Fold this protein.
Amino acid sequence: MCRPDYFDVTYCINPWMDPEAPVDRALALLQWETLRATYEEYGHKVDVVPGVPGLPDMVFAANGGLVVGDRAMSARFTHVQRAAEGPAYHNWFAQHGLAGLVDAKEVNEGEGDFLLVGDRMLAGMGFRSSLAAHREVAQHFSRPVLSLELVDPRFYHLDTVLLPLDDNTIAYFPPAFSAESQAVLAELFPDAIVATDADAEVLGLNGVSDGLNVFLSDKAVALSEALRARGYNPIGIDMSELLKAGGSVKCCTLEIHE
Ligand code: ARG
């Protein structure tokens, strides 16, 4: 995770961001600290990457890269405003001895668009990460990558509409995908939890699951109920300030997959 010491909304690269609307950084910090403390309370280890002045979106650590087993890749951003985050995360990865580290050559926004469900890597395209990046990831991580097309600009990253719950189960919001990708997902995950419009509109799917506990926005009411009914333990967190930049729980979290 990356502390939101320099968090702000000073430019607009997704429909959630309004540079005219005030941001309460102290509140953002408090919400972020609560998320971090909650992870630790549930037994997860959190490393903190220092923020960089002038990079207001760096708090969204999920976009910094991909770490799976003995391979890692740092991100290459779509927008110039975030470009310097790629090297910043790369340096942190290198300093912390992550094995098999390379820079992405293609446009690749890390775990924003690349999500593991068990051994299967799902990848989003259409707004940020490119199809060429999907191929590059498949090669570097030596695993098949399933490409999915996003079609709604509000849901510009895969992690805004698809939440891996355990090795075989996801929750997702079908209307955010092309008809073809919807068909692929329906076939692959017949018992997925299908999120409501209201859940998607508060970025409720932008959560993190450890297989039992699911950390997600406290505004995702129907999704939390559906999770509980299926035996998961939803843990709601208030992420209202970070939502002003178009991010929630998952965006703030880069997972280290063993
Ligand atoms: N303002 C950031 C952007 O538009 C938000 C990134 C959210 N991160 C995520 N993993 N979906 O790039």
Notes: The CA atoms of residues 136 and 212 lie 31 Å apart. The helical segments are 25-41, 85-95, 131-140, 179-188, 197-201, 221-229, 240-243. The chain has a mean pLDDT of 98. The two ends are 17 Å apart (CA to CA).
